[in-house]
Amino acid sequence: MMWIRVDASATIGAGHMMRCLALAEHLSASGMTCRFLSRSLPEHWLRMLNARGFESVQLPGDSESIDWQADAIATIDVLKRSEQAEWLLVDHYGLGLDWEIAIRPHVRKLAVMDDSVSRLHGCDVLMNTSVFDEKDTALQRLSVPAHCKLLLGPAYSLLRQEFRRASGRARSRDGTILRVLVSFGGSDPCNLTAAAVQALEDAAFSTLHIDVVAGASNPRKEEVKELCAAVGHVEFHEHTERMAELMVRADLGIGSAGSTSWERCYLGLPSIVITAAANQYGIGHYLHRRKAAIHLGWHQFVSSKQLRAALHALIADPAATAAMSVQASALMDGCEGRVAELVQHFMNE
To answer: Is residue 263 part of an annotated ligand binding site?
Structure first.
């Protein structure tokens, strides 16, 4: 059995929960029971976990202002009252080495998901998709116990079942751009969805069909919906369960440089990405360097003019856009095998 300690909110975002849910789906399919531990989890997340057959225990307090000691005490209390867990996995920037040390005596094995390279960990397994190869200087900065198993790089990206199913429908793209997908994650705290819609109001893009997705935790989703309604060629989607389908249908994605980048790459979707948080910059830079996406940089320095120029350039050069699709897919080569290895490690330890 595995307990998964993760939170999601408008401030924290949805990425941590999404990848933990993907892992739980993989493990559950192999016969392992997975249960979630969270604080003040929004109702739509509770419904989603329940619909997928996962129990969720709500810890007391607010996820926005977390105290690691109080969290450790509450977590240990749950662990003591439940059956012995083989694993506890944590995916949380607010819970670090001190929390892990407090938890260790109460679980057999401890796993951590983290896309930062500057944090100390005392775990048995560390998963980090933001360390890209053995020459990556970030690898030298990882601080973990000598026995810790490192699962590093995009090939260990955890993709939900809908994306694995959609891979069979992913098409070879010729670089023609007729349909664009705009999605900046579950909460979009920087309001980049609205900024992108406003940039795409340009008459030069009037022949494009633009799908815009706003997550359930997006506090400005009504504003985004109104913006979309005012633009004739834009279709608004709220908290859709069809994200993989929308990616397969799209010719280009526009979004943040977070963990959703690996979903776009997995389905071969060329992208324009913008960094919305510190942990995303490395991913955006890597994708740009590998010609798997165009990274425009930090959100506060990206103008509507720059976004429009990047889109114009890709429309004008189908060959470059098609090559970007190939490069994106290539980054995820071996993903299925690596994830199967990960699942077997958790099942057999």
So the answer is: yes
